[in-house]
């Protein structure tokens, strides 16, 4: 890639960051740390819009969906300092290290018009808005994830956390017994400093509440 192209990409990415801060308000998004985001019920939808060297003729959109409502449960299960965790900024629910993984990630490209770049960004925002609306038809509650919707990645460990959130500890134990070592990695901090996994914490948490 020529130096001129590299500079153009760098300059356009700066424009994206600047313009999204203003355009996001029109589409009921907030913007922070390079993310567009919106909390809708039990879920938070986040998106990154940028231009990448490999696809320099397009806007590259990455869309993530996370059941943020489960984070409090995750923190309780892992014996974290709830007072400290609950005072974190709301963006911590999607960009912090201590939360449940995304249930959906999709990326796609949208061509942009260099002569009308702001309109191209608006088109990207409209597309993100449409996709979120489509997901919301299905994702009206975190409990939907127990029904194994095919478009979303929901491990047995995640299902167990949902059951704990619902105080259904026996069902949570069923899912925990079915989870695998690989699924322990369903959260970013899947092993603490003592080498204890979330799965182990969840087992103990459920057993204590069933006594």
Automatic annotation (TrEMBL):
Q: What is this protein called?
A: DUF4304 domain-containing protein
Traced from the root, the source organism's taxonomic lineage reads: Bacteria, Bacillati, Bacillota, Clostridia, Eubacteriales
């Amino acid at each position: 890639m020529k130096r001129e192209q590299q500079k153009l990409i760098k300059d356009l990415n700066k424009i994206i960051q600047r313009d999204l801060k203003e355009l996001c308000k029109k589409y009921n998004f907030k913007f922070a740390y390079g993310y567009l985001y919106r909390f809708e019920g039990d879920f938070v939808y986040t998106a990154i819009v940028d231009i990448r060297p490999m696809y320099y003729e397009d806007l590259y959109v990455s869309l993530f969906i996370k059941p943020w409502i489960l984070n409090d449960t995750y923190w309780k299960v892992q014996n974290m300092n709830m007072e400290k965790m609950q005072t974190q900024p709301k963006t911590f629910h999607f960009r912090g290290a201590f939360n449940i993984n995304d249930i959906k990630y999709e990326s796609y490209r949208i061509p942009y018009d260099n002569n009308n770049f702001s309109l191209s960004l608006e088109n990207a925002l409209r597309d993100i808005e449409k996709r979120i609306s489509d997901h919301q038809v299905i994702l009206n509650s975190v409990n939907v994830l127990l029904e194994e919707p095919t478009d979303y990645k929901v491990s047995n460990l995640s299902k167990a956390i949902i059951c704990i959130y619902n105080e259904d500890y026996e069902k949570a134990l069923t899912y925990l017994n079915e989870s695998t070592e690989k699924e322990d990695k369903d959260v970013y901090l899947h092993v603490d400093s003592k080498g204890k996994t979330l799965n182990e914490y969840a087992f103990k948490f459920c057993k204590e509440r069933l006594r």
